[in-house]
Amino acid sequence: MSTPVPSALAWSTENCTVGRSMAVLGERWTFVVLREVFNGVRRFDDIRRHSGIPRQVLSNRLGLLVDQEILRRAPYRDAGARERHEYRLTPKGFDLYPVLVAIADWGDRYLADPGGAPVEVAHLDCGGVVHAELVCEHGHRVADPRDVAPRPGPGVLPAG
């Protein structure tokens, strides 16, 4: 009996949005920078001090996130100092929040210290802890990832 061939082998990965997303987001420090900004840490020196990211790496990551329109620079000036910039999320950046929550959920489950998660994301209306989950476009919650499967989308290209 032969092993079935995965249908995904018929699709090109040339225009893969996962690959394109990882070209922007896949470097280790990128989500650390986003974590800081989502947590309200928006100034370069504060991000560097709080996260431990080396200065040049942080400068590069912030530049990339601004170039990709995930963050925007907003000017500020402390009394007696030159104008500087802090970093604010754009709508494109806010759309990454569920991804950050999903990464945190995974880390909390598999990598947290015995005392538990160091930070929780809380729903402001009720105080409940927020988690990422899979939901189909019809509103069905998907409890088991084995209950989903990839299929060709409208932009699929044949493998060649």
How would you characterize the overall build of this protein?
The chain is α+β, with helices and mostly antiparallel strands. It has a single domain, classed as Orthogonal Bundle (Arc Repressor Mutant, subunit A), CATH 1.10.10.10. It is 37% helix and 10% strand. It contains 6 helices and 4 strands; from the N terminus they run H-H-H-H-E-E-H-H-E-E. It has helices at residues 17-25, 28-38, 44-51, 55-67, 91-94, 97-110, and strands at residues 71-76, 84-89, 134-135, 141-142. The strands form 2 sheets. It has a two-stranded antiparallel ribbon. Strands 3-4 form a two-stranded antiparallel sheet. The relative contact order is 0.13.
Summary keywords:
single chain; 160 residues; alpha+beta; Arc Repressor Mutant, subunit A; two-stranded antiparallel ribbon; two-stranded antiparallel sheet; 6 helices; 37% helix
Lay out the secondary structure:
Layout: H1 17-25, H2 28-38, H3 44-51, H4 55-67, E1 71-76, E2 84-89, H5 91-94, H6 97-110, E3 134-135, E4 141-142
Antiparallel strand pairs: 1-2, 3-4
Q: What gyration radius follows from the Cα positions, in whole Å?
A: 20 Å
Beta-strand content estimate: 5-15%
Helix content: 25-40%
How many domains is the backbone divided into?
Answer: 1
The assigned CATH architecture is Orthogonal Bundle
| Distance between the first and last residues' Cα | 27 Å
- SS summary, helix count: 6
Unreliable sequence segments: none
Q: Largest sheet at a glance? A: 2 strands, antiparallel
Q: How are strands sequenced across the largest beta sheet?
A: 1-2
Order of helix and strand elements from N to C terminus: HHHHEEHHEE
CATH topology: Arc Repressor Mutant, subunit A
CATH H-level name... which superfamily?
Winged helix-like DNA-binding domain superfamily/Winged helix DNA-binding domain
Please state the overall shape, judged from the principal axes of the Cα atoms.
Answer: globular
